Design the sequence.
């Protein structure tokens, strides 16, 4: 029997490709991260306040940097000091390659700010439904930047996936009185919010595919590239803290209102960053989009079972069915693009 062409782990007669291991871990991490993050933003500290989200973004990047350094050491069999020395040497000897990572780091920072603007001007349901368009933008940029070939059936599965996730995120009816209260508390410019979330979809798709192109077009370690990306993100994140929350940080400190659940949320976010880097390396950004979409459904189900803040509806079940069907359709062999027919050999 021929050895599997995909990199992975063999356990006896079983073989587990790395890309599917990474996708499963991504779904588990994203689901748990969303639930913990939701709790961390609703719970208040003993002083009665909430932590500053921009500082949490920076700490998540710091954790991701430390994790990448550790994994790089394991991969290259280097000690802590040797890993740092090796990293600095690689960065200084490949300045242009390092600077290229400033582009996705900047785009991710812009994306996070756009999402804050969007959530300030759109209802949560409208934001979540619209933001799923990042799956389609990722596919478009994969075709234009990576020359990825996507069959008509795969494009249809992407459309079904977007519709399915949108249906799952549709709010359930809570009664006329409750809806009126919710609408009366909502203020903002819906046009600005829509432009912000659409721009974030484009930024997310472009940055993810650009990073994928860098990872797949280099011989350098995945974890070294992740270290370089984290360094840029930390600097840009600190700039965001200074301009957005500088006064609050100077007044009450960088770690104001941090609790145990805050640190757990930060750790899960950092862990997710490492998994996403592995998914991009071994799979692609479109599969990452599917994994994230399925995790949204899992989050809704777990929220219903353990938190009780989600009401199951016909929209939920219809959306779940569409996502399952679209995922199966996208990965099915019959949906894969057909290889071009070889040219006939004139000598025969």
Sequence:
């Amino acid at each position: 029997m021929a050895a599997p062409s995909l990199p992975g782990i063999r356990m006896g007669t079983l073989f587990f490709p790395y890309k599917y291991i990474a996708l499963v871990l991504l779904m588990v991490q994203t689901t748990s991260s969303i639930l913990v993050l939701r709790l961390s933003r609703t719970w208040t500290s003993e002083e009665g306040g909430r932590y500053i989200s921009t500082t949490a973004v920076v700490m998540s990047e710091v954790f991701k940097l430390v994790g990448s350094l550790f994994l790089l050491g394991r991969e290259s069999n280097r000690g802590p000091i040797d890993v740092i020395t090796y990293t600095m040497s690689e960065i200084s000897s490949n300045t242009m390659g390092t600077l290229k990572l400033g582009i996705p780091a900047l785009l991710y920072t812009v994306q996070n700010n756009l999402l804050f603007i969007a959530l300030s001007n759109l209802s949560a349901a409208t934001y979540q439904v619209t933001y799923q368009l990042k799956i389609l933008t990722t596919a478009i940029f994969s075709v234009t930047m990576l020359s990825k070939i996507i069959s008509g059936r795969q494009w249809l599965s992407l459309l079904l996936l977007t519709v399915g996730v949108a249906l799952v995120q549709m709010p359930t009816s809570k009664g006329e009185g409750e809806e009126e209260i919710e609408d009366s508390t909502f203020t903002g410019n819906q046009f600005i919010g829509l432009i912000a979330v659409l721009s974030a979809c484009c930024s997310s798709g472009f940055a993810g595919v650009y990073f994928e192109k860098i990872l797949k077009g280099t011989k350098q370690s995945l974890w070294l590239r992740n270290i370089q990306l984290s360094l840029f993100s930390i600097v840009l994140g600190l700039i965001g803290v200074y301009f957005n929350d500088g006064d609050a940080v100077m007044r009450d400190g960088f770690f104001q209102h941090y609790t145990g659940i805050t640190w757990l949320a930060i750790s899960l976010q950092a862990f997710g960053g490492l998994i996403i880097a592995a998914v991009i390396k071994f799979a692609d950004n479109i599969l990452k989009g599917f994994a994230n979409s399925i995790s949204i459904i899992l989050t809704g189900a777990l929220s219903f079972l353990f938190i009780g803040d989600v009401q199951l509806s016909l929209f939920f079940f219809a959306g779940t069915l569409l996502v399952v069907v679209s995922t199966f359709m996208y990965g099915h062999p019959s949906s894969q693009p057909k290889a071009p027919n070889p040219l006939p050999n004139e000598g025969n």
Q: What stands out?
A: The radius of gyration is 22 Å. DSSP finds 14 helices and two strands in the chain. Residues 178 and 184 are 10 Å apart (CA to CA). The chain has a mean pLDDT of 77.
